Structure prediction request, 823 residues.
Amino acid sequence: MEVVVQITFGVIAVFILVAAAMVVSVRNVIHAALWLIACFFGVGALYMLLEAEFLAVVQVLIYVGAVSVLILFAIMLTRQITGEGVRQLTNRWPVVLAIATLLFATVLAPTLINQQWNVPPAPPLGTPEPIAGPAELGRGFVNEFLIQFQVVGVLLTVALIGAIVIAYEERARRRKVLTLAEELELKRLREQTSPTVPAPVEAEPVVQESRSASER
Amino acid sequence: MDALTIPPVDLGLIAPLLVVVTWATGLLLVDTFFIPVGRKKLTGYLAIAGLVVAGLVGLPLWGVSGSTFGGMVRLDPFALTLTWVFLLIGILSITMSLDYLPRQDIEQGEYYPLIMFAVSGMILLAQGADLIVLFLGIETLSITLYILTGFAYPRLTSEEAAMKYLVLGAFAAGFFVYGIALIFGATGSTRLSEIGAYAADRDLGDTNLTLLLGGAAMVLIAFSFKAALAPFHMWIPDVYQGSPTPVAAFMSVGTKGGALAALVRLLFEALPTLNAYWLPVLAGLTALTMVVGNLGAIAQMDVKRMLAYSSIGHAGYVMLGVMVAGEQRGPEAFIFYILVYALSNLGAFAVLIALEHQGEEAWQLDDFAGLYQRQPLLAVAMAIFMFSLAGVPPTAGFMAKFYALTAAWEGGLPWLALVGVLTSAIAAFFYLRVIIRMFMTEPEGEPAPELNRGLTIDIVVAAAGTIIIGLIPAPIFALVERSAVALGG
Amino acid sequence: MLANYAIVGIFLVAAISFPLIPLVLAFFLRPKRPTPLKTSTYECGLEAIGDVHVQFKVQYYLYALAFVIFDIEVIFLYPWAVAFQVVGLYGLIAATIFLLMLFAGLLYEWRKGALEWV
Prediction:
């Protein structure tokens, strides 16, 4: 049994690693998103292996179900997709790789050296209440984690407001304006020349939607 | 499964928080359903009323100490006083927004409930005694601020600021969660008091202790980001410059107050025994923060950016009080500094708003040239705020800085107090530069500052507070002394 | 506990191999005589014009955002529903407050017109 679990873990882990590597290496953004979904699935399977069934279901529902849709829509929203021709790595990627490996090794080395393997870790002093299944979690939500449960409701509502304020209202009255760097540049230009240089141009709204419709 | 034992829930202990959240939710609906587009100021007035009511509800709780929701939330005079300070910050920020929003053509009713939600997050940070509660508090505060930073979306700078803030903020949130996971893995609890009890009876070298240290380091990184301590301060200038001015004002004092209040609890309830580890780290960060913030401000010709850098520097002075919060002086200095800094900084930002017209900013130092001749009262008010931020004697800023430096000195960090004194001297340079511009030079342009009721009230309250606390600090001293008693520890 | 999933795993493997085996077999057995017409994307109808990638309306994104938020809400309600017998009226009140909070958000969204398809 133990061996089967180990093998299963190995298979899932390799799958996740391959998928994650594909996310950052494929040229097509949509393909990258699809690989990301595969990666999420693998993590869900890992939770299953850890006997955290509820977490696995949550992983599939939230990440595979909702977040991936969000990512795909976000890609579809962009006007120009980063096509195959665009390099995703800079020319100096070996240096970056070396630095990243070095840093990771620095983090990992003390663990590898100091850890006494196959010794069961000392149990934490405070005995954690075993929260495994949804039933215990449900009890927790109204019992000891009541305040967290309610605050999460507030947090979600705030996020909803934010979604509407930013994604919905914005499009209706958007104007072409300058980035911070461009504005500073313009300011410098204005200082160098006479004060009669034209002020930043405010172009017509990109999307012509009546303001009143969004306010109703 | 055994029957459910309902834990005692005392809603009275979170009454101000409860009022703010319910009022904000109600106001959100009232605003969308009943308040017509042109009359959104009414929403602002209602929001102010809500914050005032929350403050009044807190009055009978003075002196009460207790925790509820199974020890997840605590009320003590420390939290209550900070709650009042946060409510004051909210009220002043809303007051200065009332006319700013329509003038910038970004008036929307959601603005005011969002500020209230942000205040509720700050209150939760002051009251939370559990890592998950603290995380939720930080997130409530942060998510509202992401939205508010991008509120002036016709300006792309505002969007840019929101984007930068969101990406880095989400990164910091990741650190926080990872830290919580490690701490929970080590101690089996997310409650601050239980973590503290665990850490107290373990010797070093334990695997769990390593986990605990790693987790604590992660959480400290997240807090340093929120409070803008030095190596994690990069986002501040751009975000403050891009976001709507009242939001920048609110952020500069609000996030600092909230995050550092939570940090005080975390350090002295959960990790007091690890003092030997975090004290040198935090002391180094603080010294770096004071130096970087104040040196960075010198180079700025843009006053809004200058205030952003100065807010980094002030985070360092607040940290002086936080680090020695084990002593009686520490939390006293912390609360006092937050209050004074809130008044002076909100006032300074209000003056910036008065100079700002639609579409164009008047944040350059040159725009302040000869302000005294155009608007003598405004110039005097700005001078008061600058003196206070610089820590010049008759103002409250002097008392606050003196308090913080004394606390650090007595708390066993004399070298840090010296760094504080030196950086204050540097800071005086760029604050006084603004004053010199206002009083000693001829006006260059003709931009007439627009003063209206909300801004005037704001500036007058802030200036009066700064002067009065500077001249008669005794009542506030008494207040913070009593607030700090319960915490020492 | 974990052994129960072995059956699921076996079933999964069987379910995947069931359609896969005929496909693989067909690949080796079928005659292969392609003509240009046969290999075109559509054997009848018009030739496809333009890019596959079209820009979506922001409306889609807004719906997706609302979906994520309410999805998470449901996740929080699910454990409560499972433990309903135990937590009883007290739990019902707690969940109702949680729901009311999000209902306020939904009302706001509806009133703002974000649910309309424009």
User: Anything to note?
Assistant: Chain A touches chain C through 54 residues (CB under 8 Å). Helices of chain A lie at 2-25, 29-49, 53-77, 93-114, 134-142, 146-172, 180-192, 211-215. Residues 1-86 of chain A form a domain with the Four Helix Bundle (Hemerythrin (Met), subunit A) fold (CATH 1.20.120.1200). DSSP finds eight helices and no strands in chain A.
